[in-house]
Design goal:
Strand content: 35-45%
Largest sheet: 6 strands, antiparallel
CATH superfamily: Inosine monophosphate cyclohydrolase-like
Number of strands: 13
Helix content: 10-25%
CATH topology: Glutamine Phosphoribosylpyrophosphate, subunit 1, domain 1
CATH class: Alpha Beta
Structural class: mainly beta
Number of domains: 1
Distance between the termini: 40 Å
Strand order of the largest sheet: 11-10-1-2-12-13
Number of helices: 5
CATH architecture: 4-Layer Sandwich
Order of helices and strands: HEEHEEEEHHEEEEEHEE
């Protein structure tokens, strides 16, 4: 299998939408995650990431210009014990509460569908990282309409139990710009994870379309200790 250049993949289109990257650092020491958001409308672009507990939340950069908070204000990252949950919507809370009640990642998402933003029907993309006892595994999920048909759901879960050094997966909401926006297709892309957290963050941020990028979150979790470092980059500062 060929592992692709993450930065080339992220910059391949002007509008990949929202994206999740999960994998392992080159030295095998860290579980790596990234989440970015992009925007075409003034409402979508009027956002920043802010820290909230062990996770993050989206917030209006200028509250006076906030139009519709639905689908754009949510907690993309939450932590439940050894699990770090990363999603592109309020299903973060659904996964958190479901897993807290003893459900699996996949089971917790059964109550959710793609976003109700016709005619795009934006996919819900989600990931969960499990770091415990010196071991790391992760899962990714995509909930999408069946080729734009809102009466039909397609549900996919991908599990990675023995991820290798410098290897990760990248999933995003759209295949490119358009009207309606074309939903992501296929499995999460296999990508290379390179550099320390600062170079990883900088290169990923720089690879995203300058006009449409809004915010980026990255985290490196020490697989042995569970300790983590986080970076947040906001276009609005």
């Amino acid at each position: 299998m060929e592992y692709l250049d993450l930065y080339e993949e992220a910059g391949r289109t002007s509008y990949p939408g929202r994206g999740i990257v999960i994998g392992v650092s080159e030295d095998g020491r860290y579980a790596v995650s990234a989440y970015f958001i992009m925007g075409r409308s003034s409402n979508s672009r009027n956002r920043v990431f802010v820290s909230e507990g062990d996770g993050i939340r989206t917030q209006a950069f200028d509250p006076t210009k906030l139009e519709d908070p639905s689908l754009i204000i949510y907690a993309p990252v939450r932590v439940l014990g050894p699990y770090t949950i990363v999603t592109n919507g309020d299903q973060t809370d659904t996964v958190y509460e479901g897993m807290k009640a003893g459900q699996s990642f996949e089971e917790s998402l059964r109550s959710r569908r793609f976003e109700p933003d016709a005619p795009n029907y934006t996919p819900r993309i989600s990931g969960v990282m499990h770091v415990e006892n010196g071991q790391f595994d992760y899962q990714l999920s995509i909930l999408k309409s069946d080729n734009g048909d809102p009466s039909s759901d397609n549900r996919y879960t991908f599990a990675y139990t023995t991820p290798g050094k410098g290897q990760g997966r990248f999933i995003h909401t759209y295949m490119g710009d358009g009207d309606p926006l074309p939903s992501y297709e296929g499995e999460p892309a296999p990508v290379k994870i390179e550099g320390d957290i600062d170079s990883f963050t900088s290169k990923l941020w720089e690879s995203l379309n300058a006009d449409n990028k809004v915010s980026l979150f990255t985290r490196f979790i020490d697989i042995k200790t569970g300790e983590y470092v986080t970076r947040i980059v906001n276009k609005n500062v």
